[in-house]
Amino acid sequence: MLTIALRRTRSPRRTRGFTLIELMVALVLSLIIAGAVLALVLAIIRSNRLTLQSTRLNQELRATLSVVAADLRRARGVDDPLSSALLVGGNPFGPMSTANANCVIYAYAGAVDGPWHIVRLQNGRVVLEGAGTTRPADCTAGGGVLTQLGSDQVEITELTFTPTTTASTPPLATDENVVREITVTVSGHLVDDDTNLASIPRTMSQTVYVRSLGSGI
How many other C-beta atoms lie within 10 A of the C-beta of residue 122? Predict the structure, then answer.
């Protein structure tokens, strides 16, 4: 009985908690870990945005090239090849102008606002201009219907047309030699407030094979 009484009267053991220093150390470690996790999440988000925007830029340039190439492939097209071959001078849409590396002038039957078309770089955008029934003297011809190829989210910095030509008989003007193929090159970058994104350029090229007209005249 005495032993039981002593146990009941003995004071309970004091529970030891965390000290202030331990709490501060734990808090600092938690903040460091949270900061590292936050930095990792932000880096992943930024990386994903860079990937998405780069993909978008590639798609924009590829789409622009595709539209230009599709229209160029129709150059020199006529409704009736046999009748055109019997015309004096041959195909009226035969000569293509590539004298200006940043512009191409061509024509084909049934072209919208044509038959003559001009593709050129204007104010950071690739534009197609329907130049009417008379062949433009140069790439600065105005007054035609302009169609912008591509969106405003991409600025085009370079557009070049590099032709492969063969001499015609009799020789035509320098810019009217027979063009068998044209390599179209386009360069651009995104229009974005993020300078890291806006400073990433892309360049794409595509070779377009133009229909053959024999002498090409």
Answer: 16
Tokens encoding 98: 């590539």
Could you tell me which of 51, 59, 73, 53 has the C-alpha nearest to residue 204? 59
| Residues 179 and 161: beta-carbon distance below 8 Å | no
Question: pLDDT tens for residues 151-206?
Answer: 888 899 999 998 876 655 444 554 455 677 889 999 999 888 877 777 888 999 99
**Distance of alpha carbon 50 from alpha carbon 172, whole angstroms:** 49
* CA of residue 24 relative to chain centroid, distance: 53
Contact 217, 83 (CB under 8 A): no
**Which pTM was predicted?**
0.72
Q: Where are the domains of the chain?
A: 49-209
| Distance of alpha carbon 98 from alpha carbon 135, whole angstroms | 13
Give the separation between CA 209 and CA 164, rounded to whole angstroms. Answer: 10
Distance CA 166, CA 155 (A): 34
